Amino acid sequence: MAHPGAPRRFQRVLALAALLLSASAAAAPILMQPLPGATYAQGRYYLIPHPYAQVKADIEQGLAGKDLGGFRGRDDSGPLSSMEFYWAEIGARHQPALKQALDQQANQAADPVLAKALAAGAINRDEHDAFRAAIARQPDYAPEQIKSLPFFSQPVARWSFQRERGKSRRTQSDYGTVMDLSGLTGREALTLVWHGGTDTTITRHFRLTRCMVGVTCFPDPHFEYNSQSVDHADPALDSYLDGLARRLQALPEADADRLMQAYFDAYARGRATATQPVGPAPAQATLPETPVSGIRLPADEADLRRYDNDEWRLLALPDGSLLASGGATQRFVPRAGATPAANGPRQGADAAITREDTAGFGLARALKIAADGQVWALGLREDDGGRTLLAWRPGQRRAAVHALDPQLPQWRIDDWTLPAAGGVALRVGDDLYTMTPQGRWRQRHWDASLRREASDTLENALPWVPSDAIQFGDGLFWGGDRGGYGIDPATARVVASVRTATPKLLFGSRPGNWALAVAETPDGRRLRAVDLGTGQVRFDLETPAVYYTSAAARSARGRLLAVSGADNTVVVIDMAQGRLLANLRAPKDYSVSALAFSWKGDRLWIYARPVGNNDVAQLIAWDAPADAVDPAQGRDLPDQIRCGYSMACR
């Protein structure tokens, strides 16, 4: 869903995109609108320390000459608020009183909104203080704040000239602007002269047919016209204005650029948004591939945990066994033997796995486990297909069934978690349902509108970095807008927040102080780790696992992270030291479907299935180095996500 503030930023975004394209020009061009409301165009500029009327009259006289005939003048004088977005920033840079007034406007607009959001729990105190500080530092301002100041409502003298020459197939458009900057910069006399040009070529091709994309082509003789435009200034106009600038002693280019520095800072912000600074990659990002294989599972795994079922889960249990949901929920119990482990010799390695049925689960899907070993499952009743909530412990004969709250729309549960106080919490849109350990249900409403209003006050202060649901496994419902925020399901209030400038965070560890995203960079797709304390990027890792990412798992306190993708690739990263521990490859023609770390933190389990179901699934064990073991402590438990063919990890 698009951000609510996007439409009013659209013109600014287009201008910044054009700035990026013009960054390589030899001179110091700037972008302006040849006519009010027109698309920004690139052109050369001069700052002339003479009154506007004198410079305008001089140019009018020059354009009337025989070498520069055909220009039409136009009076574009008007309030500064209706002109290019960057003039307010330039004015604030040169006039401290104006900047103070703009800052006061921004604070007055934001303070009541942030105070209301804080009182309602839509933001927490840390966010409130951080948001106010960001607004105090914001480099630009909302259009409504600019328009409300009398300074920007005063008319500014501005005159433009245009000329179009050529035939129907090729035209040359020349344009320019003369603008009074004396009041804006606080100088006695300063006039901007800007000009540019566009060469447009139209080509015509005769076509016998017309095609509808994705449908068909049909006979329809017609001419097809294509237009291509390039920046091209008229040499005569360029020479005339260059001579005028020398004659009127225009400011040297370096001095002019300093006066326009706020403009170039706006360009730099656009570039910084497009290319966020990145920390170093893990030191051993080119570890050799290590082939691994494991214990072969029964042939019916292909039906119980189908390749196209994104909803089944693999869960590690405290006793070292595993629980897998799907067509049947079953427990995998490793049996010790003398056979070497898949990734090297190991005494007492597991030689076999016993698969045990667990009664009462029905068609279970998602699985979660509490610190006391209580397993919770979301599933479907076999009789009528309705949603059900199940509870089970190892050794328990049958899973206990808990009825869902009658008010809960069972067909669309967006997220669920296990709160610190026990029980279960479900999220359906902005409604939060919690069930106590005693089985009592309670519903609370999360006021997302207040959160959006608070976020909108930061439109010019912080980037928009949305995340639908970040899985931290800490009992909170997490999302992201100007940063990450966690909602307590028991109170429907934000109780935790993290900084980030990276959108689409999907997984992480608060004790480990990191979050994970699949990021698109100028160099390609990367696995991105973000520091939750600073919001900065720890590293971008280039790995095959970033393509078709299927699963991710972490150890209890986030020391180890495993990610699978590109069919049989699994990478294991030591997040504490920022280094790659393992670059694993499941057997050829296998695809990794699920990952899970053990509670002891010493083993990673890999569930791999054959591509095309030409063989049987395997359960592979990889043992962590002794100095990287990360066992469960208190409520800090191992956690994992599955993506499969869904878009959850895209």
UniProtKB/TrEMBL annotation:
Keyword terms: Signal
InterPro entries per UniProt: Quinoprotein_ADH-like_sf (IPR011047), WD40/YVTN_repeat-like_dom_sf (IPR015943)
Signal peptide: 1-27
Name of this protein: Uncharacterized protein
